[in-house]
Amino acid sequence: MGSPTMGYTSCESCRGKGKNDDETPCPSCEGTGLVVVRPKTERRRFPRYRTDLPITVRNRLERDLEGHCKVISEGGLGVTLPEAVSAGSVVLLQFVVPTYPTPLRVWAVVRYLIALQHGLEFMYITEGERLSIRRFCNELGLQSINGAQTDSR
């Protein structure tokens, strides 16, 4: 696979004329009237899927916080909790996915916190747990074809 091809579009600075109002070459497009458009690259390693799973998060104070997982991927979760857990904190997650026979207990790190929305990245996860989460995500992906949507932000 090669790199994605680049394209061109009209320069916004000179509106595609290649010259400024004083007839000097536009510095943005170097007088060509065109600028390179590079394709957007996906910065996420795994696609995200909307879901609604109850989840228990044990914080460093050994307190259990009951929350809801709203987004899941093979690499982590988006969770709403009743109180903030600081970014950088390591937490123990317990949740159920239909593709795994028992509740998953997975260590994660809080990557971001916006209000009470937490982004959690899995830290220590077995291959069986990862495979079950992948299967669950694939099922959610099949459902998205029939109406729901993935979140690729």
**Strand order across the largest sheet:** 3-4-5-8-7-6
CATH class bucket of the largest domain? Mainly Beta
The CATH architecture classification of the largest domain is Beta Barrel
* Total of domains: 2
Roughly how many Å is the radius of gyration?
23 Å
The CATH topology annotation of the largest domain reads as Thrombin, subunit H
- Residue runs with pLDDT of under 50 for 5 or more positions: 1-5, 148-153
Mean pLDDT: 82
The number of helical segments is 1
Distance between the termini: 24 Å
The fraction of residues assigned to DSSP E strands is: 35-45%
Overall spatial form: elongated
Structural class: mainly beta
CATH homologous superfamily caption of the largest domain: predicted glycosyltransferase like domains
Q: Quick one: biggest sheet? A: 6 strands, antiparallel, barrel
* Count of distinct strands: 9
What level of helicity do the residues show? Answer: 10-25%
Sequence of secondary-structure elements: EEEEEEEEHE
